[in-house]
Amino acid sequence: MNATTAETDPGRIVLLTTSHRVAPGLLSWPAWQALRTADSVLCADGAHPQLPYLREAGIAVAQEAPTAQDLVDVCAGGRTVVVVATGEGEPALTDGLARLAGSGRVRMPDLELLPASYDLPGARLLDLVQVMDRIREECPWSSRQTHRGLAKYGIEEAYELVEAIEAGDREELREELGDVLLQVVFHSRIAEEDPDAPFSVDDVAGGIVAKLIHRHPHVFGEEKAETPEDVKAHWLRTKAEEKRRASVTDGVPLGQPGLALAAKLASRTRTGGLDVPVPQGEGVGYELLALAVRAEADGIDPEAALRAAARAYRDAIRASEGVEPKGEPGTDAESHADVDADADIDQDAGPDAGQE
Fold first, then answer.
1. In terms of C-beta density within 10 A (0-12 exposed, 13-18 middle, 19 or more buried), how is residue 292 classed?
2. In a 10 Å sphere around its CB, with 0-12 CB exposed, 13-18 middle and 19+ buried, how is residue 94 labelled?
3. Strands (DSSP E) along 223-262, which ranges?
4. What average pLDDT does this structure show over 2-22?
5. What is the pTM of this model?
6. Rg, the chain, Cα only
7. Do 179 and 160 form a contact (C-beta atoms < 8 A)?
8. Of 107, 99, 93, nearest to 12 (Cα)?
9. Residue 105 vs residue 15, higher pLDDT
10. What is the pLDDT of residue 254?
């Protein structure tokens, strides 16, 4: 490059962005190359978390917030300037550069947006933990909540999630999954404060990760599983070794809805190879019990079947009142109730169900 070319070269601006969800100093190789070869490195935020690590690596960083015109002038003559973006980005700077470029009166430097670190899948969970920390400390209501006080909300959110699934509403499903996730993070945050047996959301996540790996030897180990039946066999064998239960009924929550409870007990009995006659007695309770056991044997979720039938009943009531039906899917009692008991491992506390 001759002197004339160098003098007329408008240079290069590199806008370096980083994620606050990645530990400071963990930058991509192209980012380090750009930083080391730049003629100037600027950052408007003197408290930027990356600065100590950049300076430790020998990168001279000037705390400056140049205007768009200032930056164009500095780059003139073929110089490269790296701007370490703040957490909010650099909207004033980028808007100013866009206006200069649009004017047509200025020969603009090359402008490059260089992500120096990327969010990994699940990174927004870190934001949720941080937000929950602050709410727990500063919100007058949230700071007083206990596990027992929040218990009813866990049940409500779980039912709302099931309703969103049965309705087939994708937007509602996403929102309800978030509400269920909030319950997990909220309870984990409360648990950190227990004076005798504290644990954190990391302990919760670590526990379920270890359990899933242990219960999926066909994925993480040397076991082989070609069919859902193979997976189910692994699962039941592993759970039996872990739990050492005295009865197949151990671990069945009695607080769940009656039809679901009856079906769960029938499932445990069937998979345990037991032949237990259904108790006979007077009254609707025993009739419902017999229906639930029969439904489970046929691969039908009786709780879902009753909800679907109830929706059909609701629509019939609305029709008698001259009110438009809700129009939700699932008014047919069988539409959301059929479950293949052999394929759906959840019927027998399978790997994709609640982790008992």
1. buried
2. middle
3. none
4. 79
5. 0.65
6. 30
7. yes
8. 107
9. 15
10. 86
Q: How far is CA 195 from CA 98, 189, 190, 192, 198, in A?
A: 56, 13, 11, 8, 6
Q: Residue holding tokens 């003139």?
A: 76
Amino acid identity, position 239: K
DSSP state of 48: -
- Whole-angstrom CA distances from 259 to 50, 67, 270 are 57, 68, 16
The pLDDT assigned to 324 comes to 82
41-77 pLDDT per residue, tens: 999 999 999 999 999 999 999 999 999 999 999 999 9
The tokens of 195 are what? 């004076």
Residue 80 to residue 12: CA distance in whole angstroms: 5
Digit-coded pLDDT (tens) for 27-45: 999 999 999 999 999 999 9
Q: Can you tell me which residue has the tokens 């499932």?
A: 267
Contact 348, 354 (CB under 8 A): no
Provide the residue type at 129 as one letter.
V
Residue type, 332: D
In degrees and rounded to multiples of 5, residue 13 shows phi and psi of: -110, 125
**pLDDT attached to residue 90:** 85
Minimal CA–CA distance to 109: which of 120, 121, 97, 99? 97
The single residue listed with the structure tokens 């490269």 is: 80
For 113-171, write each residue's pLDDT tens digit. Answer: 999 988 888 989 999 999 999 999 999 999 999 999 999 999 899 989 988 998 899 99
Question: From CA 239, how far away is CA 215, in angstroms rounded?
Answer: 8
Q: What amino acid occupies position 256? A: Q
Residue 231, SS3 per DSSP: helix
**Residues 155 and 148: beta-carbon distance below 8 Å:** no
Strand order in the sheet with 62-63: 62-63, 40-43, 80-84, 12-17, 110-115
What is the identity of the amino acid at 155?
I
Estimate to the nearest angstrom the gap between the alpha carbon of 348 and the chain centroid: 25
Q: What is the pLDDT of residue 160?
A: 93
Backbone angles phi, psi at 130, to 5 degrees: -65, -40
60 CB-contact burial (10 Å; exposed 0-12 / middle 13-18 / buried 19+): exposed
